[in-house]
Amino acid sequence: MNKLISDIIREHNGPYSDNGVSVIRVSGIDNKQFLQGQLTNDIDSLGNEQYKLASYCTHQGKVIVNMQLIADGDDVIIILPKNLSEYFIEKISKYILMSKVKFDIVSGAAVLSILGDEALSINKKYNALSSGHYKKIDDNNIVINMSTPLIPQSKCVLMNPGHQIEINCSEKDKPNTCLIDLFSLVTRLQVENIEKYIPQVLNADRLDTVSYKKGCYTGQEVVARTHYLGNVKKHVYLVNINNSEIHERNIINKDGESVGELIGEYFFYNDVTLSHSILRDSCDFNELFIGKDIVEVIPMEDIV
């Protein structure tokens, strides 16, 4: 494993409060039918203690927000970036019309981020034993196994922080991080990133965020056509920059040609910035820069 990643996992195993996300409850008798016609993944198959990743797109197939979905009885729980939660609800609510569906940000809900041996222990304790598997512990708490083949990871969703899962770690009151989503290559778009990229550029096929077998949804025609033409030439990669003060996003090669950009949230570790980037698949990953700072692409085999 990449030494930087190993060091971060060892020093930031958590659990930490992930203050960068919101929890949304989608209720009403038409909720799943409505979401099926709006999101990229197959909502009809949501359940059986398996979470799904999905995107919400414009009619042009450009991603507005990425999200994680969990079935909670008849309701659907959505976890997505806090800075886009109200915008998402505003956009998608325009299409509710006569449908009986309601979107509510769960006030007071918290998400804990856990890595490494601590995540292994939590996943085992609550019997969330395989990646993508979640267990509802009680009416207030959910444990989600977010592990990659190399990195044990777990998220704990506390619907009511007054009824917390027993976790023997003092770090949970310290704010963190987007580390799990960074390592999983699930990009937390920022306001300046929305409506710019199709799902495939954001690693939809690797992450299984799009169902190509379901019926129509917003942006489906463009997303499906791109998939079957197979002409996507850039994707999300995890990178680190040896500078903790990044003032620009444009990534250039040794000739000064723009070949990509930083995207989503940053994580700072010592004097290093960890971030997602959109890069041309064909560019030379060994000679990339932001300004005069070297950009190192972390091989996917070191994280997923």
Mind telling me the CATH class of the largest domain? Alpha Beta
How much β-strand is present in the residues?
25-35%
**Helix proportion of residues, in percent?**
10-25%
Shape label: globular
Q: Radius of gyration over alpha carbons?
A: 19 Å
Using the 3D structure, state the CATH architecture of the largest domain. 2-Layer Sandwich
Please summarize what this structure is:
With 304 residues, this protein is of the alpha+beta class.
Relevant terms:
304 residues, alpha+beta, Gyrase A, domain 2, Elongation Factor Tu (Ef-tu), domain 3, 2 domains, 6-stranded antiparallel barrel, 5-stranded antiparallel beta sheet, 19% helix
Report on this structure.
By secondary structure, the protein is α+β, with helices and mostly antiparallel strands. It has a six-stranded antiparallel β-barrel with strand order 11-14-13-12-15-16. The chain is built from seven helices and 16 strands. It folds into two domains: 11-184, Gyrase A, domain 2; 191-302, Elongation Factor Tu (Ef-tu), domain 3. It has helices at residues 3-11, 31-36, 82-93, 116-125, 179-184, 204-207, 220-229, and strands at 16-17, 21-27, 52-57, 63-72, 75-81, 102-105, 110-115, 134-136, 141-145, 153-158, 234-241, 250-253, 258-269, 272-280, 288-290, 293-297. Helices cover 19% and strands 32% of the residues.
